[in-house]
Amino acid sequence: MRKHIVLKSLLLVSLAAGLSGCQSQAGSSKQTASTQKTTQTKTKRQRLIAALPKGVKSTDTNLLVVNKWHKRGEMTFEKGSVNGIAVRKSIQQPLTTFVDAAKKAGYPATVVSGYRSVAYQQQVWDQSIQSYENQGKSAKQALKLTKEFVAVPRGSEHQTGLAADVMYTKWYNAHGNQLLSSSDKSKGQRWLINHAADYGFVLRFPKSGADSTGIEYESWHFRYVGKKNAAFMTKHNLTLEQYVSLLKAREQAAK
Ligand SMILES: [Zn+2]
Predict the structure, then answer these.
(1) What is the whole-number distance in angstroms between the Cα of residue 163 and the centre of ligand 1?
(2) Pick from 182, 178, 189: which is nearest to 222 by CA?
(3) Ligand 1 mean position to 220 CA, how many Å?
(4) In Å, how far are 53, 74, 187, 219 from 205, measured between CA atoms?
(5) Residues with a beta carbon under 5 angstroms from ion ligand 1
(6) 86 C-alpha to center of ligand 1: Å?
(7) What's the Cα-to-Cα distance from 229 to each of 114, 139, 197, 226, rounded to whole Å?
(8) pLDDT digits 0-9 by tens, 34-58
(9) FRET partner for 77 with CA separation of 20 to 30 A, picked from 15, 26, 36, 218?
């Protein structure tokens, strides 16, 4: 009698195991898929790290990251100028060459803005909030809108002197001298975007880059990073933040 009960319960156990086996199998195949995905992502990152240009360090001045998460105080460095716009002396030549090449290609460009001090950025910030409030927006709305389009003071890379807002002049003049993403509909702005890397620049805030940069798409903001870095970043569609993160991972692994 007792044996019978044991057998019965064994049967129940195995039935239950069979059922749960099904479930766990489904669960494990799901898990395998997600593990595979993680492995693939990891592999892609590992592949990128392995392919990084030699001799580049995350701490190189050209790769200085300033954003809303990495704020910096006022910086001092030698300044130069391009078409009357102040920039870091080290990018005067590359930026001049870039703009000259655009002109030669039939797309004269305007350097709208280059180096901006933290103090000036604060002014831009305050003015933006003020102008939204003047349009009848609440203080909260004005702050939200300003955050979308204006870099927070101490968090703008214009203070590094390594960035420049460059616009295809014809489009810029025809649109009330505004910096608008839709400028990329013009051939001239597209020329600038497509050739920037040849001169050591990248479009700093690309489409779908906002998660890592904190700034929405800007078709006019170019950042000098040097030719080698620009070529790699452009080829692999990496933001500066993502690129520097890969470099840091390589440096970490080498320790
Ligand atoms: Zn800019």
Answers:
(1) 7
(2) 189
(3) 7
(4) 22, 22, 19, 8
(5) 165, 221
(6) 13
(7) 20, 41, 9, 6
(8) 556 666 667 889 999 999 999 999 9
(9) 218
- Beta carbons of 86 and 79 less than 8 angstroms apart: yes
Torsion of CA 81, 87, 93, 97, to 10 degrees: -90
* DSSP bridge partners of 82: 85
Type of residue found at 160:
T
User: Which pLDDT value is given to residue 162?
Assistant: 98
Which tens digits make up the pLDDT trace of 58-87? 999 999 999 999 999 999 999 999 999 999
Instruction: Give, as one character, the DSSP assignment of residue 69.
Output: S
Which residues are the active-site residues? Answer: 218
> Under 8 Å CB-to-CB from 190, ≥6 apart: which residues?
184
Residue 172: pLDDT band (50, 70, 90) is: very high
Take residue 137 and report the two structure tokens written for it: 């927006």
CA of 160 to the centre of ligand 1 (A): 11
Kindly give the distance from the C-alpha atom of residue 49 to the centroid of ligand 1, in angstroms, as a whole number.
29
β-sheet bridge partners, residue 111: 166
Structure tokens at 53: 């240009």
DSSP H or E run through 88: strand 85-88
